[in-house]
Specification:
Rossmann fold, 4-stranded parallel beta sheet, 2 domains, about 300 residues
Amino acid sequence: MPTAIAVTSPELVLPSPDRHTPTATVLQSAARSPKAHAMAHSLDDALTEMHTLIEYHGYVIVLCPASAPDSVRHRLHAIRSVLESDRIALVRSDLPPLGLSVLALQLRQLSICDFSPGVLACAARLLSHYIYAGALLGSVARLDRVPVTLRSHAKSWVPGAQFAVLATPRPELVKVSGGGDALLQGPGFSTKLLYAAGQLAPDWVVGELAPAWNVQGSADVPLPGESARWWATGKLVEFAAAIPDISVLYQLVSSVRREDCHWCGLELIGDRCAFCAAPMQPVNTAAAEPRVRALPRGAT
């Protein structure tokens, strides 16, 4: 069976684009916040849930939003600690909700390829650099996840003001005037655009942003429930542009040099094992060529 891709909320599971792509597993024990008197019973359920996944799939990659409550993060670490398993990778991501859903879908697509669990888990960091995730917002007055100038704060109080914000791969904010003159810098490669409308109409995203980014198709998806909290307003249209072609994703990941983790023995790409968190051993010779060649400029 392919490596299991698990998420902490059902809203992070996008429909499979074909019959070959497996769905993601929603960790019910991590998705809910149990009361204190039910904690012990819920932990038993969580351990059973994770143990079953490991037994069936061999390895489990859990995508957890960096914005998730501490209780969710603590529960996941407790599960891994009690099971004493090195087959669980806990991958935290700073992507906004819709962007994280796209990342989960890409990992699901790649899980049926011939990548080892270690490479697949490490690929989450690499693929994140190629996801252009942002939102059209009716206000940035309370936005704290992207740098906002005082001038933008002041403009957000003007009735009807709208702002286009890019969270990843590099923060950017522009005021949308409606004349098509304010656009975010988009990807330089072929992408598909997903958008989810809240209390704003998606006209600007579909009519202005999509053509400017030269996307190869767009699709409307339900707005994740976490989006309004992440973007600090319900007046939004969230969007994410990413590589939809599994063959391109495969080439991107396979072009990165692989190493064996000196601690757990799994393959890794990048500078840290996603399963045991051990850093890659330093190169002894200063003349050695860089270990990772395909990571985008500025990636860490």
